[in-house]
Design goal:
Blueprint lengths: L4 E7 L3 H12 L2 E5 L3 E6 L3 E6 L13 E6 L3 H10 L6 E6 L3 E7 L5 E7 L4 H4 L11
């Protein structure tokens, strides 16, 4: 696997407070904010996400930590990881917020979300902040 980026996604009930803290104290730039999910960028290569717990998705570990791996071909990575014996904790699916992805767990219970970017649905396109490429 050769991910093009790796970033933590922290599941928390304090999404707004977390966003405001990193914007205020670390000059983070908000690039996506739909209320329950926020993406923050720090310069050219670092990002951090916060997500409120979702009723239809399992909380993969008590710490709420997820590592997001952006890859060129999520379907190929899915086949590779499943054929190596890993079980998914989230099925491979297209998501309206702009990706296709699935999740597995590491030995520590940390969720690993592997995805490829897709154009967001009109419903989610509105949440991308101005100045950010909305046609990905």
């Amino acid at each position: 696997m050769h991910p093009s980026s790796l970033s933590p996604c922290i599941t928390t009930a304090r999404v707004e407070e977390s966003r405001d803290f990193y914007v205020k104290h670390f000059s983070a730039k908000v690039t996506f904010d739909c209320g329950w999910y926020v993406n923050l960028e720090f310069g050219n290569s670092a990002s951090l996400q916060f997500m409120a717990p979702q009723p239809d998705q399992p909380l993969c570990n008590p710490a709420g930590l997820t590592y997001n791996f952006c890859v060129a071909d999520v379907d190929a990575e899915y086949c590779l990881l499943i054929s190596s014996g890993l079980a998914t904790i989230m099925p491979l699916e297209d998501h309206p917020w702009g990706d296709r992805g699935f999740a597995v767990q590491d030995p520590n219970g940390v969720a690993l979300y592997i995805y490829s970017e897709r154009p967001p649905s009109p419903e989610f396109k509105q949440y991308y902040q101005s100045g950010v490429d909305n046609d990905r």
